[in-house]
Amino acid sequence: MGTKKDKKILVTGALGQIGSELVPALEARYGAERVVASDIRIPPAGAYQGAFEQVDCTQPLAIQDVVRRHDIGAIYHMAALLSAVAEERPQIAWSVNLGGLYNVLEVARQNSASVFCPSSIGAFGPSTPRDRTPQTTIQRPTTMYGVTKVASELLCDYYAERFELDARGLRLPGLISYAAPPGGGTTDYAVEIFYQAVRYSHYTCFLAADTRLDMMYMPDAIDGIIQLMQAEPTRLKHRNAFNVTAMNFTPDELAGEIRKSVADFVIDYDVDPVRQAIAESWPRAIDDSAARAEWDWQPRYDLATMTADMLAKLGEKLKSPTRTT
Ligand code: SER
Question: Comparing C-alpha atoms, which of 60, 57, 69 is closest to residue 19?
Fold first, then answer.
């Protein structure tokens, strides 16, 4: 199994968009004493019930030290740069996204730990079929983010094959959440739009109105990550880099859905050519039938239920004077 009994779990990038919600979910399932959160940043005091370690994943000895001290049996490796920021800083993206994963896999190999590594719709490129994108298909991404994601998928496959390391992963679509901001992704508009709708009933979108991309609400992503790590290995034909999606929509369609609750909501457009080009190199709708068949992937939220929940949760959160993001 991906998460070994009695051993602890390490989450890298714990302060990021996914890590912020993955840590509490793992604590709820396995107990706070079994989860070690880590990030290159330092959290506010009292942020974690369990242990926190400051770890820079480009430093293999730092990872090794934490894994040995805490008797780690599974590493959920979430530390990475997102697509737009990786395009601004390609050298750092290579070092963090691929170098960091290499270090994690090596430490996992030396300590018989399993690894979860998120891939992305960014692992596809302009020559990939954009609709019903198959599980196995052409992957020639044109972004540094995509290059590191394809290489990560291959590296995880290699370690699984060569060293029998239990490395599993999902190709996640754009993730929508209200807990922590994504920071530097091409799909971030689908988060920002909710903050702006609740605060100002107005949003200026950096992607064009008809840009269709796969998306998912964070609770489904968290469930999917934990479910894959618990899946029966004999059922997994792919193991790593599963296509998963929950919905796909355009900015115009999302605005229409928000307008059902925020009647005066207005969207306008100021297209960022860099992020628009990235979005146009990605699929519009991926086929996740392998995940459904091999480990019963089944998202709970669609566009309507996600939108209603986001607006309700953000409405509450933005009322609080102490929370502004
Ligand atoms: N949400 C990510 C990004 O936009 C895609 O994996 O970078």
Answer: 57
> Is the overall model pTM greater than 0.85, yes or no?
yes
Report the CATH architecture of 175-215+247-285+301-317: Alpha-Beta Complex (3.90)
Q: Are 136 and 237 in contact (CB under 8 A)?
A: no
Please compute the mean of the pLDDT values over residues 244-256 and round it to a whole number: 98
Tell me the best of 188, 217, 276 to mutate to test the pocket of ligand 1, counting ligand atoms within 8 Å of each CB and taking the most: 188
Identity at 314, one-letter amino acid code? L
Under the banding of pLDDT at 50, 70 and 90, the label for residue 239 is confident
Higher-pLDDT residue of 33, 323 = 33
Q: How far apart are the C-alpha atoms of 77 and 47, rounded to whole Å?
A: 20
Q: Quick check: CB of 187 below 6 Å from ligand 1?
A: yes
Atom of ligand 1 nearest to the CA of 282: 5
Determine the distance separating the centroid of ligand 1 and the alpha carbon of 121, expressed in angstroms. Answer: 7
Model pLDDT, residue 50: 85
Cα 307 versus chain centre, distance? 19
Our mutation pick for probing the ligand 1 site, out of 18, 88, 120, counting the most ligand atoms within 8 A of Cβ, is 120
pLDDT bucket at 258, cuts 50 / 70 / 90:
very high
Q: Is the CB of 100 under 6 A from ligand 1?
A: no
Asked if CATH classification 3.40.50.720 holds for the domain at 8-173+218-243, the reply, yes or no, is yes
